[in-house]
Specification:
heterodimer, A: about 100 residues, alpha+beta, Ribosomal Protein S5, domain 2, 4 strands, about 35% helix, about 25% strand, B: about 350 residues, alpha/beta, 5-stranded parallel beta sheet, 13 helices, globular, phosphoprotein (chain A), Mal_deCO2ase/Cit_lyase_ACP (chain A), cytoplasm (chain A)
């Protein structure tokens, strides 16, 4: 999947996560800000990486600002940001979330 | 739950209410210079219909952010405001933003993934989004084994590129292995940014170890300096120059192995002199700062200000003594366009 622009989804409010996806060259690079990064940082990054790979993105820069989002929220926001970055929002790929 | 609404400051009643709220939160500067540039303002309304938070956007800068002091919800309201502002920016396809704030609020922005670029005792300057300063630096060309070479930098607006600029570049070129010439990217001068870039490139083409680079958002960029919370112009200049110098010292210079910075004196500009002094104070001793005296041609001090005045007063002949032929050819060819810009009100006496 080619990243054509910057894609953002989510907010900075409690229980949410804001994901910004832009083009990258060195695999999936995640810059994560989270109060719970120490305990859950690896898990949050794994959900983001898995979702992007399942969607078909191998290289991307991701900025993630977590405010205590559950895994299902993280995956949904990641998918939305990825679809916006690849300009494919006309064909929602909801199966990625399963 | 508080509701996010758009505030239309063009409505006098709304503006009054907005201003009253900000004053109650300790923000007092509503000079037209700061307020006129606002593109978008959001407000946070609580269940009783009271304004409990607000924030604005000017270009890609977050401004006038305040939330009520109710400690239990302050953080949530702050996040909601910044979130609403970012949502607006994203809708405008702006994915890179700045905030210039009091140092004590830096941490609040850091929690929202803003990265601090520099801070003084009073103020902090942060950025968010993409491309960031690391992306900016990664794109700058390098030479082989750069970390062990003598690398210097010059920052100039070059409005336009004069023999004085050229002499400064020549000096730096002769004393170093590599010289970065950063051209101010803010488009607020008589000569447009693309024109200034081109004339610097042409005027330095004979020096093979000189690289001309856009200063981007990080080297003397005017747009990133809202100053509404600072009391006086002097204080503003001091803070602005210190932040600028710190970004250069802490991030730009180490990454590019820049060990020396050349500055030209500016006999007619108080701001430039202030800036030079501040740079020297902040950068030394880590970075060698050389302030070079203004170059003269037949006892006439060469400044771009003088060139602009001569364009205005229709004195093409005298300009040829102040600029290289590359710049002169450009002025000669675009004489009418430049004069029209001045007539339309372009200030020529600034920097």
């Amino acid at each position: 999947m080619e990243i054509k622009t910057v894609g953002v989804a989510g907010t900075l409010e409690s229980s949410d996560i804001q994901i910004m996806v832009s083009a990258g060259q060195n695999g999936i690079e995640i810059d994560l800000e989270s109060e719970v990064a120490k305990s859950y940082g690896d898990q949050i990054k794994k959900v983001i990486t898995d979702t992007l790979k399942k969607f078909g993105i191998e290289n991307a820069k991701v900025k993630a600002t977590d405010k205590g989002a559950l895994d299902c929220v993280i995956a949904a926001r990641t998918l939305a940001a990825a679809q916006r970055a690849t300009e494919t929002t006309d064909k929602p790929r909801l199966e990625v979330l399963q | 739950m508080d509701k996010t609404v758009e505030l239309f400051l063009t409505l006098p009643e709304t503006k009054k209410r907005w201003q009253k709220f900000l004053i109650s939160q300790g923000i007092n500067n509503f000079s037209s210079r700061e307020v006129a540039v606002i593109d978008h303002t959001v407000g946070l309304i609580d269940e009783d219909g009271q304004l409990v938070g607000t924030g604005s956007i000017a270009g890609n800068v977050l401004k006038y952010i305040a939330v009520s002091n109710d400690a239990s919800v302050q953080g949530a309201r702050f996040n909601q405001i910044v979130s609403a502002l970012e949502e607006y920016l994203f809708s405008q396809k702006i994915y890179h933003s700045f905030v210039f704030t009091k140092a004590k609020y830096s941490a609040s922005f850091s929690h929202l993934n803003f990265k601090e670029l520099a801070h003084t005792d009073e103020a902090a300057f942060l950025e968010s989004g993409t491309p960031n300063i690391q992306d900016f630096l990664a794109k700058i060309p390098r030479i082989e084994d750069q970390n062990h070479k003598k690398v210097a930098a010059i920052v100039m607006n070059a409005n336009p590129f004069t023999l004085g600029h050229q002499a400064l570049v020549k000096l730096a070129s002769s004393e170093n292995d590599l010289v970065y010439v950063f051209v101010v990217a803010t488009d607020a001068s008589l000569f447009k940014t693309s024109e200034r870039m081109e004339l610097v490139k042409k005027g330095t083409s004979e020096y093979p170890n000189v690289l001309v680079i856009s200063g981007g958002d990080y080297l003397v960029s005017q747009s990133t300096f809202p100053a509404y919370f600072l009391k006086s112009p002097d204080e503003l200049i001091a803070t602005q120059t210190e932040i600028d110098a710190l970004i250069f010292k802490n991030t730009i210079a180490p990454k590019l192995a820049i060990k020396k910075r050349y500055l030209g004196t500016e006999p007619f500009s108080r701001t430039t002199n202030f800036y030079n002094q501040s740079l020297k104070n902040t950068l030394s001793p880590k970075i060698d700062v050389e302030i070079v005296k203004r170059f003269c041609n037949n006892d006439q001090i060469i400044t771009a200000t003088r060139v602009r005045q001569l364009i205005k007063s229709n004195n093409l002949k005298d300009i040829s003594n102040l600029v290289p032929t590359t710049t002169f050819d450009f002025i000669n060819k675009n004489y009418q366009i430049l004069q029209e810009r001045i007539k339309k009100g372009m200030n020529i006496n600034g920097n």
